[in-house]
Amino acid sequence: MNVTVKELTYRIQNKTLIEAIGIEVREGELVGLIGPNGSGKSTLLKNMYRVLEPDKGAVFLDQQDLFRMSYKETARQVAVVSQETSVSFDFTVKDIVFMGRNPHKKMFEPDTGHDHEIVEQALSRVGLLDEAHSSFSTLSGGEKQRALIARSLVQQARFLILDEPTNHLDIRYQLQVMDLVKELGITSLAALHDLNIAAFYCDRLVVLKAGRLVASGSPEQVLRPELLHDVFGVSAEITSHPLTGKISITFLPESVNQLIEGRVKR
Ligand SMILES: Nc1ncnc2c1ncn2[C@@H]1O[C@H](COP(=O)(O)OP(=O)(O)OP(=O)(O)O)[C@@H](O)[C@H]1O
């Protein structure tokens, strides 16, 4: 699925949180949405998964206008994995994953063997088959995210939105979740804070600053020291990693920066 965002603007109480954002996520791409705290990443994504209603602009899923679709149809096309993973009731992992079947069913329609098969396949794919009957709330953060990814798999959505999916996860689970997302190959847009992870996994990056799009392109094109300084207010050295060939960013704290400048002057 190709996703096109056109001139998306969202205001609240006369404050413009995102303004005229235009981005494209092409079939099978993983696009990273980066930007400092408060730059509008979650607001943009919430407009795209219809928790918020934009003031202006459009989103097209292939040729279909997202804002003209029913919510049920939207749920068949768009899956969301966000960082908020608490649930109010004591659901099992399997219950949570089963919820992904809802947009495909009528009210009170019983689950079929086909539904069970799809759910078990998804649990197996994310490595949680053994946890199927465990309580969701007892899972580790990484396992919860994997369960939510399994839910989006059974949803059979063609566009995956991830809002800081690796937040609060330790590095092993961060890599595991990103490996999984990459391996799925679903057209995906992910808000990410870790720029090295974004550089490693994403096909392209889009950068927000104060609600506006300020750059987009491959990680190599986007992650330049000048941009990091301008957008995040930090100094950084960018190298190409000898093993992975990917961009690697070393952030330089102000104290180190002063030391380097001092040496250069001497
Ligand atoms: N309901 C609201 N009313 C007023 N301002 C809001 C509201 N929701 C968000 N904001 C403001 O909009 C801006 C963008 O917030 P948003 O959560 O989209 O940023 P973000 O880039 O996802 O940030 P973070 O990286 O911290 O998660 C922030 O300044 C935030 O305070």
UniProtKB/TrEMBL annotation:
<dbReference type="InterPro" id="IPR003439">
    <property type="entry name" value="ABC_transporter-like_ATP-bd"/>
</dbReference>
<dbReference type="InterPro" id="IPR027417">
    <property type="entry name" value="P-loop_NTPase"/>
</dbReference>
<dbReference type="InterPro" id="IPR017871">
    <property type="entry name" value="ABC_transporter-like_CS"/>
</dbReference>
<keyword id="KW-0547">Nucleotide-binding</keyword>
<dbReference type="GO" id="GO:0005524">
    <property type="term" value="F:ATP binding"/>
</dbReference>
<keyword id="KW-0067">ATP-binding</keyword>
<keyword id="KW-0813">Transport</keyword>
<dbReference type="Pfam" id="PF00005">
    <property type="entry name" value="ABC_tran"/>
</dbReference>
<protein>
    <submittedName>
        <fullName>ABC transporter</fullName>
    </submittedName>
</protein>
<dbReference type="GO" id="GO:0016887">
    <property type="term" value="F:ATP hydrolysis activity"/>
</dbReference>
<dbReference type="InterPro" id="IPR003593">
    <property type="entry name" value="AAA+_ATPase"/>
</dbReference>
<feature type="domain" description="ABC transporter">
    <location>
        <begin position="3"/>
        <end position="235"/>
    </location>
</feature>
